[in-house]
Amino acid sequence: MGGINYSEKIPNNVNLANDRTLQRALEHWQPKFIDWWKSMGPSDFQGAEAYLRTAVSVNADGWARYGAVKMPDYRWGIFLADPVAERRIGFGDLMGQPAWQQVPGEYRSTLRRLIVTQGDTEPASVEQQRLLGHSCPSLYDLRNLFQVNVEEGRHLWAMVYLLHAYFGRDGREEAEELLARHSGDADKPRILSTFNEPISDWLSFYCFTYFTDRDGKYQLKSLAESGFDPLSRTCRFMLTEEAHHMFVGETGIGRVVRRTLEVMKALGTDDPSAIRRAGAVDLPLLQKYLNFWCSSSLDLFGNEISSNAAANFANGLKGRPDESQYTDHVLREATLKLATPEGDQEAPMLNALNEVMRESYLKDCEIGLKRWNRVIERAGHGALALALPSAHFRRSIGSWVGHPVDPQGRILPREQYDRRLYDWIPSEADRAFVRSLMQRVVEPGRMAGWVAPPDRGINNLPLEHEYVRFQ
Ligand SMILES: [Fe+2]
Ligand SMILES: [Fe+2]
Asked: 3-class DSSP state for residue 453?
């Protein structure tokens, strides 16, 4: 196992050739996907050759092959992680029973909704990022953007495969709908609001890959625990691709920090307006972008108290990320203390699982902040250290909706909150300034002035490599 068959029209490791009906259905969907890619994918770069990695095996070591490809020729396909022999459900009321190879009738609509909701985010992010290529800070970054984009396209394939293979006609209809909704569309928007926010500059792109792709990681981790085995295997392989997206975010923000510190040193000041005049991103401005994207991504975990989350867990459909690290996998007795605007409340753990996930997500988010802050401190600017906003700041979902809480978690008088909001998230002027920095740089090895070069190139190639070749 592990090997992927590339001689077929749709590369796969699920023996598609043996299921002619499924093969035909997916071959029918494939041209619609390519049309979507050409009209909604990276704008104007369909003829460019990008140095991309393609999965050749699903084994953890060395699964990728690198080469120059035109994006519409990318070999999207269906890759599932190898099965775990005699896998059993690892949590909930059905714990210990054999994992399901087919969809249990009673969970059919819930599983379909989970798959559609995940699937919808994948093409959404490609749509959100489609204009970024025009303002890339380097060829290296442009290539990374395209790598993220083709892999999100493949994640769509992953979910569409499940819909086609296990959900019959309504699955096929949902697969069509995944290409019909569009990010930010007034009539047919994407399902989750974060995926309707435009990503019009590269600072937002780095924040999105850092915070929002990390939400993706946590969703995939919890679905990788699912008792529905094909979903688990699909998500396990998607996670290996997802890691690169977060790498782009973490190193991207890290490079912005490094460049800003260089400019501060050269100017001998930390005055934001002087830094901006020198064409770099002052750290308080970066902090506003972190506040914006972190708070927006926190909403993706849903309400603190959720009967859906409880049912999904109890029924073995969706576990906690890294379920095996916990000792109690049933949670019928456990409780969790929740901070609400009305004070602390004790909630049944089963109903508070969205919050459990949000907390472990935030811990994961802290890792990058520690790295960036080490660099800031070493440069002698510890007072400008970056921080995650309070999980109660600017929430659009859950018990903190509409409460005037600042990024430090303090409840403020409404009037003060309204007056100060743009001290914490980017104002129109901040966004206009960031947009003014977004000048396209495509000379091999060169970097825009607002971001430091990365430590190394892709796949051991030098930074000067021509990672994207225009026709
Ligand atoms: Fe994805
Ligand atoms: Fe991603």
From this structure: coil
Give the Cα separation of 120 and 170 in Å (integer): 16
How far apart are the C-alpha atoms of 256 and 261, rounded to whole Å?
A: 9
Q: Which ligand is nearest to the CA of 156?
A: 1
Ligand 1 centre from 260 Cα, in Å?
30
Tens of pLDDT, residue by residue over 2-31, are: 678 888 899 999 999 999 999 999 999 999
Helix ranges (DSSP H) in 278-427 = 283-298, 307-314, 353-378, 414-424
Which of 456, 448, 394 lies closest to 201, judged by CA? Answer: 448
pLDDT > 90? residue 424: yes
Rg over CA atoms, the chain: 23
Ligand 1: distance of its center to the CA of 272 in Å?
A: 35
Answer for the pair 6, 57: CB distance below 8 angstroms, yes or no. no
CA of 218 to the centre of ligand 2 (A): 11
Which pTM was predicted? 0.97
Residue 146: other Cβ atoms inside 10 A: 26
Cα separation, 373 vs 160, in Å, equals 41
Q: Which residue has 């850092």 as its token pair?
A: 210
Q: State pLDDT tens for residues 410-421.
A: 999 999 999 999
CA angle 316, 318, 319 (to 5 degrees): 85
Query: CA geometry: angle at 438 spanning 283 and 251, to 5°?
Result: 55
How far away, in angstroms, is 122 Cα from ligand 1 center? 5
